[in-house]
Design a protein that fits this description.
The chain is an alpha+beta fold and about 500 residues long. It has nine helices and 28 strands. Belongs to the WD repeat WDR55 family.
Length: about 500
């Protein structure tokens, strides 16, 4: 590459010629060193390549010598030639490509196919790795990890901020709501995810998305105060409530095939029937935003948590307030039912977990300090195990009654915005402020034994323990493997 400082003023040819002579000498020395280094590195079978390289180098040096006088002269009236520069770049690029192709092996051509072939290409590359031929334990572990089949779908990355996610009740489809008001539908599998369609539903941020009980329709609510019911396949709008609330709607909950409820930023809760044009019931008992709504299998009570620290329960059939809890000095952010719907557990902004006996929602019966960080999401995995997440970006498993921290299920680099569990119960999905949706296989909880109240445990270790779905392993696992290897070696002796 010719540097701009090599071009001198034509009024001073002597200085330009001296610089050119020095430059040519340096180029000759550099090329000679490069050729010698290549000759030492290449084998005898590559002598033809070395001779060709030497010939090209001598030719280039000769060109440099013949053009050195011309390079010292500069025409101030001349213009830059884009054609000559592009030709030079193209020639240099072709040389680089020819050099790469001449040194490529059949394995290298496979590498190109792997890059363009997606998930299928990676399997071809794995076949070339032989774990038995490696002596390094670290390399063996890496090869084993690559060969291990995926237990969960790969990550989904979006351009827009993800506000909510929801699994389809019958199919392997997940709906992803975004801050632009759209809902993206993806078909997920361990082999890869397929984008089905993006439904443009709202003019402002879509804050919550839910599927109908039969999975045919998508229900959404938005900051623009509207509610939409859209056909999932045809994208046809079936129902539109334009000014459903006076405040932006924050949460939506499907009760059955006809009923659903919504809650807004001002604390108003409304009950809707798809067979009517307007709401069938509205109630405002709190002054802060609605954080979550929940019903049990019986579907007689609607439980509502809010940012001002109240748990409000509504009688759906009677269309009236059932009971409201004592105020808590923290936001009640999430909840779930456990122990055969006999226990209601509520999470808070301070990381506490409060247990209420079903039907006795005035005050909690038990309290667990939780994880000492803000908690915004809770998903029941089994009848006694919940996954909770929040601002720290870590998904933790918690055993209910008695309370125990079971460990870390998964993690994001930024706060977690939403959680949901698949129809099979084997996967949970999480979205974070990094515009990503990640999947975690939690099937191992099916074999998890029940915990006794008097059972000993180490709370410090439990909070930092990585479960099988986590992307990180535990240091204790490494040392236990070393102990096993030591025992095997002693047995061989």
């Amino acid at each position: 590459m010719r540097m701009r400082s090599n071009f001198k003023n034509p009024d001073d040819p002597s200085d330009g010629s001296e610089i050119d002579e020095v430059t040519d000498a340096v180029l000759e020395d550099d090329v000679e060193l490069m050729i010698n280094a290549r000759v030492e590195d290449w084998s005898e079978d590559d002598e033809d390549v070395v001779e060709a390289a030497e010939g090209n180098a001598e030719y280039d040096i000769g060109d440099e010598d013949t053009n050195s006088d011309d390079s010292s002269e500069f025409d101030p009236m001349a213009t830059d030639s884009d054609d000559s520069m592009s030709d030079g770049e193209a020639a240099g690029g072709s040389k680089a490509e020819n050099k790469t192709n001449s040194s490529a092996t059949p394995g290298g051509s496979k590498g190109n196919e792997d890059e363009g072939g997606g998930g299928g290409g990676s399997s071809k590359a794995v076949l070339e790795l032989n774990e038995d031929e490696e002596d390094d334990e670290t390399v063996k572990a890496i090869i084993a990890a690559i060969k291990k089949p995926r237990s969960s779908p790969p990550e989904i990355k979006l351009e827009d901020f993800v506000t909510d996610i929801c699994f389809h009740p019958l199919r392997d489809i997940i709906a992803i709501a975004t801050i632009t008001g759209d809902v993206a539908l993806y078909e997920y599998s361990n082999e890869g995810n397929k984008h089905l369609r993006t439904i443009e539903v709202h003019a402002k941020a879509c804050r919550d998305v839910e599927f109908s009980t039969d999975g045919l329709n998508v229900l959404t609510c938005s900051k623009d105060k509207s509610i939409m019911i859209t056909d999932m396949e045809t994208e046809k709008l079936k129902k539109f409530y334009e000014s459903a609330h006076e405040e932006p709607i924050n949460k939506l909950h499907v009760i059955d095939e006809n009923l659903f409820a919504t809650g807004d930023d001002g604390g108003t809760v409304k009950l809707w029937d798809l067979r009517t044009k307007n709401e069938i019931f509205a109630l405002k008992e709190v002054e802060d935003y609605v954080t979550q709504m929940l019903t049990n299998e019986a579907g007689k009570l609607l439980l509502v948590t809010s940012g001002d620290g109240y748990l409000t329960t509504l009688n759906i059939g009677a269309r009236k307030l059932y009971v409201q809890s004592e105020p808590y000095e923290e936001e009640l952010t999430c909840m779930g039912t456990y122990r055969g719907d006999s226990k209601l557990v509520v999470g808070t902004s301070k990381g506490n977990l409060y247990t209420f006996n079903w039907g006795q929602f005035g005050y909690h019966s038990d309290k667990f300090p939780g994880v000492k960080s803000s908690m915004s999401e809770m998903i029941p995995i089994t009848d006694r195990i919940a996954c909770v997440a929040g601002e720290e970006g870590i998904i933790r498993a918690v055993h209910i009654a008695p309370f125990r921290n079971l460990g870390i299920v998964g993690q994001h680099s930024m706060p977690i915005e939403s959680l949901d569990v698949s129809n099979s119960g084997e996967l949970i999905a999480s979205s974070s402020h990094n515009n990503d949706v990640r999947f975690w296989n939690v099937k191992y909880f099916e074999e998890f034994g029940d915990i006794k109240y008097n059972e000993k445990h180490n709370s410090y270790k439990e909070k930092r323990h990585n479960l099988p779905s986590s992307k990180f392993s535990n240091a204790s696992d490494f040392f236990s493997d070393l102990a096993k290897e030591g025992e095997e070696n002693n047995g061989d002796e």
